[in-house]
Amino acid sequence: MTGPIVLRGGTVLTLDDTHRVLPGEDVLVTGGEIAAIGPGLEVPAGTTEIDATGGIVMPGMIDTHRHLWQTAMRGYGADWTLTQYFVWYYLEWGKVFRPEDIHAGNLLGAWEALEAGVTTTVDWSHGLQTTQHADAAADALEAVPGRFVLAYGNIQDAPANWTGTPEFRDFVSRRTGGDLGFQLAFDVTGDPEFPEKPAFEVARELGVPVTTHAGVWGATGDDGIRLMHDHGFMTPETIYVHSTSLSADSYHRIAATGGSASVSTESEQSAGQGYPSTWALRQYGIPVSLSMDTSVWWSGDLFSAMRTTLGADRSREHLEAHAKGDTVTHAALRAEQVVEWATRGGAAALGRPDLGRLEVGKKADVVLLKNEHSPVSFPLLNPYGHVAFQAQRGDVHTVLVDGRIVKRDGRLVGVDLPAVRRQVESTVEHLRGQLGEEAWAKGMNPDVPETKILDNPYTYTSYQSDTTHGG
Predict the structure, then answer these.
(1) Pick from 259, 244, 288: which is nearest to 82 by CA?
(2) 3-state class of 147 per DSSP?
């Protein structure tokens, strides 16, 4: 459905430069853009009308770092640490993924993102062992009516190797330059020889950004940031994923060169990259966007990202105050700010000022949160607080991408979920067959370390009831 569309009578979170909140107003979409915002708008004949009364109309959310190819293994690694993730994907089993498995994961993950109101997703696609895998990833993204950026990576080979092959150059010439965005995705180990330098030079030659896992405990740290900076490869377009476990010097270098951070709080809290970094990033003025990382562990929606980010940042603020004997009486990070990070923050990181806000002339990527069947939908008192703490994917009523309805009345439009399910089931069957049942079960259920119970200085005698007093 691509004709004019009007969302009537919702609370509009514009996320414009002044963050106007407009209760009871309409949003008119024509030709893929926001045409008008206001009360009681007159609309062209034949306009599709959507009743947004009692709901929140907001910009589509933007995820700047998600490994879509892993979505076919949804929940498999729920009890992993980062070490177990690295061993499974990097060292042992990541190499058994076929192109069709990459396609299945991307297809499922792309639809999952749209269903949750994430209209733009960066596919941090580091499972592209061959250009056949890359074509499969791109094919899946182009089959789904959302906005996607393919961040091309290959964890099975060194960045200098795979970016230097004729096959990679052929892929770039064939598959980039259209609607599908493109980045290079690789990490910098901190090796003094800087083996990643040729890959940065390729990115510079192609004119594409680099997205890199930075500040990941035990894997990437200050040495990598220093090498990037000293060789002139830190740019305003660079996205530093996680950005935990870094020194003040590294944060200063990121801030000075205009880069941004993609924070995956659910991931950082659970896997061990380091404490979620928004508490530090705010001190250095580093722009923030939000991301979900991977559905092999965590949820695939930015409501969880906003909620956990607020919790982690505020928890750190309280903890540090208590250590000094102080009390936090006013929270520094507000719900409004994390909603901005989930929308405008992602748009800024991707260099897309036409996304992430509802303004006349901007792209019509729009989300309506409304659920008449839920008691959580009312009262609507603090719209930003409602988005960050109350809403969830089941409340996403309508999603528009480029003025096209891709979800309406709580259901995706134009998706063949049975076909997606068949592809994913084929991938799961393949992986289980490659691993064998013992390795499959072991991977899903890692050993639980023994918990040492601390010695208790208090001893208790057996309790005797006092029957003489009616006990």
Answers:
(1) 244
(2) strand
Phi, psi (deg, nearest 5) at residue 367: -125, 135
- Nearest Cα neighbor of 387 from 355, 340, 337, 339 is 339
Q: Is the bond preceding residue 99 a cis peptide, omega within 30 degrees?
A: no
Mean pLDDT, consecutive 10-residue stretches, the chain (471 aa), reads 90 98 98 97 97 98 98 97 96 97 98 98 98 98 98 98 98 95 98 98 98 97 98 98 98 98 97 97 98 96 97 97 97 97 98 98 98 95 98 97 97 97 98 97 94 86 57 49
Tell me the two tokens of residue 295: 């559905």
End-to-end C-alpha distance for the chain, whole angstroms: 74
Torsion angle in degrees (nearest 10) through CA of 434, 438, 439, 445: 140
How many angstroms from the chain centroid is the CA of residue 256? 25
Domains observed in the chain: 5-59+358-412 (2.30.40.10), 61-350 (3.20.20.140)
Check: pTM over 0.85? Answer yes or no. Answer: yes
